[in-house]
Write a structure and sequence with these properties.
This protein is mainly alpha-helical and about 525 residues long. About 80% of the residues lie in helices and about 0% in strands. The chain has 27 helices and no strands. Helix 6 runs antiparallel to helix 7, helix 7 runs antiparallel to helix 8 and helix 22 packs antiparallel against helix 23. The longest helix has 28 residues. The protein starts with a helix and ends with a helix. The N terminus is likely disordered.
């Protein structure tokens, strides 16, 4: 569009006017006439801007994008604050796949009109396209930076984050991927797809237990998800392979290696009660009783868990597994208590055995061991009660007899020390009844009988000591004092001695026969 002729003539006369005439003209003209030159300049600039802009739009319509960039750039030089020029040139750059230049122009447009929502949205999309091109070229780090810019501009557009995730995965930065997905799950709530995605990342990081739990959670939300079922099946197959390898190692006596294998199995399938039972047995054999107890408790807790869907025909096996776990738990607690007792910790042994007896009240060995613990603590009443309870359960158990013999001998010594000699003699008699093979019991009773003037009984016990131990030099003076004027040879060959020997040998023989029956 050309300017009017009168305007051109005025412009020419304005240009050839001398400096002095210009000055006189300005002084003689009214104020509104002084603005006309500026107005003419703005009109000329606007005309040229419009011309360049229209040429750029026309070039865009004809797909002449390089020309469009040139036209919009010329318009921009004349009016650099016009947002539309930056937007149009950015679109031309975008058609030329010059994403960086397009992004710069849209950034300028955002700074000129920060309140306009469309410009940041378009800029984010340009970053997305640029990132995708970089990703396709294998420039994953640069692509990640670009996708991150897009996500920062539009934080609620999930595809931008997903492409960032793809870049992190391609770069092998799985921990960052995991953090990103976990953040989505925390903010947006659980979804089966995100849980499966996180399960894959856990698998990539060799975090098999977390992978398993995510798959189970995904199946709760979407029970028929074939991907989750397939992944879970592989997990369980890997777990069973590791379990079988652990069994083979255990059979060879390689317990530490077996433990490593079963740990792998539990990593793949952490809800399999059978695996906890097996590992608990390994811990028990390795005398790591605390770990063993924890595993047996878990084995009982996980009975019937982990079957998807639950199998009715597995109910009997689950009950057997629970019973085995309880049995192993009691045995392990008992072993742990024995270890504590051997290390001088009878109080701890009592506490452990209390738990074991709560779970299994018909095991005599538990009462025997708790009786031993009470005996160490000098809790005589409780010790005797446990020994008697064990004897009631298993009356022919010679291990109980031996303990009762020791207990009553000890009580006899206490009574003797308290000068309760008849009471002491009675307790020594009970000790001899439970175990007639111990020389000391006869010697103790002989001394107690002497104190209560039962010389005949004292003489028989002294003879019994010498029959069992002819070289005993502690009882000989006592026996000689009971039979003054007689030699030991005369005493040991008399009828009384022969009768004592016959009776003593019969008691010892009966005890040995009973003991051999129990051991066989």
């Amino acid at each position: 569009m050309n300017p009017p002729a009168d305007c051109a003539e005025k412009e020419d006369s304005f240009l050839i006017m001398s400096d002095s005439s210009k000055q006189n003209s300005r002084e003689s003209s009214p104020p509104e006439m002084k603005k006309k030159p500026d107005m003419y300049g703005e009109l000329i600039i606007q005309e040229r801007v419009d011309k360049h802009y229209e040429a750029g739009v026309g070039a865009m319509s004809q797909s002449q994008f390089d020309k469009a960039v040139s036209c919009f750039s010329k318009a921009m030089l004349l009016q650099p604050q016009q947002t539309r020029f930056y937007v149009q040139r950015a679109e031309a750059y975008l058609q030329l796949c010059d994403f960086q230049s397009a992004a710069l122009d849209y950034k300028h447009a955002c700074s000129l009109q920060p309140q306009t929502e469309a410009y940041p949205q378009r800029l984010a999309f340009i970053y997305y396209l640029q990132g995708q091109c970089l990703f396709d070229l294998g420039n994953f780090l640069e692509a990640l930076e670009t996708f991150t810019k897009a996500a920062e501009l539009k934080p609620y557009v999930r595809p931008y984050y997903m492409r960032s995730l793809a870049c992190l995965n391609a770069l092998g930065r799985y921990s960052e991927c995991l953090g990103l997905v976990s953040n989505w799950l925390e903010k947006d709530g659980q979804s089966a797809d995100l849980l499966i995605l996180r399960a894959r990342l856990h698998h990539q990081l060799n975090q098999m237990t977390l992978c398993y739990h995510d798959l189970i959670s995904a199946l709760r939300l979407k029970p028929c998800c074939p991907v989750a079922h397939a992944m879970l099946k592989k997990q369980k197959e890997a777990a069973e392979d590791a379990h079988q390898a652990a069994v083979n190692k255990a059979l060879k006596g390689e317990l530490s290696e077996a433990l490593r294998k079963i740990n792998n199995a539990l990593g793949y399938n952490p809800t399999k009660g059978q695996y906890y039972l097996f590992r608990g047995i390994l811990y028990r054999r390795l005398q790591d009783f605390t770990a063993a107890i924890e595993d047996f408790v878990l084995a009982a807790d996980f009975c019937g868990v982990g079957e998807e869907p639950p199998q009715k025909h597995m109910q009997d096996n689950s009950e057997d597994l629970e019973q085995d776990a309880q049995t192993q738990l009691v045995l392990t607690i008992n072993d742990f208590a024995i270890q504590c007792l051997s290390r001088g910790l009878p109080s701890e042994a009592v506490m452990l055995l209390n738990k074991a007896i709560e779970k299994q009240r018909d095991a005599s060995e538990l009462f025997i061991n708790r009786g031993d613990s009470f005996f160490k603590l000098c809790e005589w009443t409780f010790a005797l009660a446990d020994y008697q309870q064990a004897e009631e359960m298993d009356p022919d158990n010679t291990a109980i007899w031996l303990r009762l013999a020791v207990f009553h001998n000890t009580m006899g010594l206490h009574s003797y020390g308290d000068k309760k000699y008849q009471e002491a003699a009675d307790k020594f008699s009970v000790a001899i009844r439970y175990n007639p093979c111990v020389i000391q019991y006869y010697e103790n009773r002989a001394k107690a009988y002497c104190k209560v003037a039962k010389m005949e009984e004292a003489k028989k016990d002294a003879i019994s000591v010498l029959i069992l131990e002819p070289t005993n030099d502690q009882v000989a003076p006592l026996l000689l004092s009971l039979l003054p004027g007689c030699s030991l040879t005369d005493i040991m060959s008399c009828a009384t001695a022969r009768s004592v020997k016959t009776h003593l040998e019969a008691k010892i023989q009966a005890f040995k026969i009973a003991a051999s029956k129990v051991s066989s």
